[in-house]
Design brief:
Distance between the termini: 80 Å
Strand content: 15-25%
Largest sheet: 6 strands, mixed
Shape: elongated
CATH topology of the largest domain: SH3 type barrels
CATH superfamily of the largest domain: PRC-barrel domain
Number of helices: 3
């Protein structure tokens, strides 16, 4: 017959308590790190992917990136780099709160586009065959 060993049971209990404490400490550390990361987030990042309207309510474009202290706005005529200080939250979107140099904003926005976007080109041999041409 197998004897019950109190020393083994006590060891297993202590081991389980230590593992539970380590898991709890790890979870708290991760939560603290996540909160710290969120507090370090750029104020402009919460303005991403929102529509921008001018003071008259006309849609200017949509924010797509943050570059230093500028919001990159995709507008119908290209990209604009608008100072974050010129934008304020207005419901689900953003509103321009002042004037900005539109020519300079367009120049900086297009410079951002050229730096950030890559043109993808394919050799025609790499493309799948056109199904309509086969039929």
């Amino acid at each position: 017959m197998v004897e019950f060993r109190w020393d083994v049971a006590a060891f297993l209990l202590v081991f389980a308590v230590i593992v539970a404490i380590l898991i709890r400490m790890s979870m708290r550390a991760r939560q603290a790190e996540a909160q710290q990361t969120m507090s370090q987030e750029s104020p402009g990042e919460k303005m991403l992917l929102r529509f921008v309207e001018d003071e008259k309510g006309t849609r200017v474009g949509e924010t797509v990136a943050v570059e230093a202290d500028k919001m990159i706005v995709k507008a119908p005529g290209g990209f604009l780099a608008i100072p974050v200080a010129q934008l304020s939250e207005s419901g689900p979107g953003l509103k321009l709160t002042g004037t900005f140099d539109e020519a300079a904003a367009k120049k900086e926005g297009e410079a951002w586009r050229e730096k950030s976007h890559k043109v993808i080109t394919y050799d025609p041999k790499e493309l799948p065959p056109d199904e309509q041409a086969d039929g």
